[in-house]
Amino acid sequence: MVSKRIVLHFPHRLVNQPIVYKLVEEYDLQFNILKAFVTPEEEGLMVLELGGKRENFDKGVEYLQSCGVKIQPLSHDVVRNETKCTNCGVCVPICPTEAFVVDKKTRKVIFNDKKCIACELCIKICPPRAMEVHF
Ligand code: SF4
Ligand code: SF4
């Protein structure tokens, strides 16, 4: 048996398709959706725990990839380089899990890494490239 937490990136055309349910029907996998949302670019994003027999798990992952779903293991951390962050606030509205909040008193942007699901949206948009992926 295997159980992994993974992030699925769905292209726009697949957002309303019941792809994940096929994992149950055809590959006898169990899943638990931890987060699901549509990003501003209208890409679907889902964080789920997926488990089952190793052979079925691998086939299920192959099926997802053949449909055009990008799969990212939740095995890396997103961290902020505090010396680079300028507290510009660009990352605050983009983060789907509200991992960034502006401190009302100091106006500084606080990063709560416990909320981060490593979707990497902030990596691309942070102007001084303060958000980094650590494997
Ligand atoms: S976008 Fe980058 S520089 Fe701006 S507040 Fe967020 S982490 Fe800091
Ligand atoms: S990677 Fe960035 S945008 Fe994505 S959840 Fe983590 S902090 Fe938010």
TrEMBL record:
GO terms for molecular function: 4 iron, 4 sulfur cluster binding; metal ion binding. Keywords: 4Fe-4S, Iron, Iron-sulfur, Metal-binding. It holds the Pfam family NIL. Residues 76-105, 107-135 form the 4Fe-4S ferredoxin-type domain. This is (Fe-S)-binding protein. SUPFAM superfamilies: 4Fe-4S ferredoxins, ACT-like.
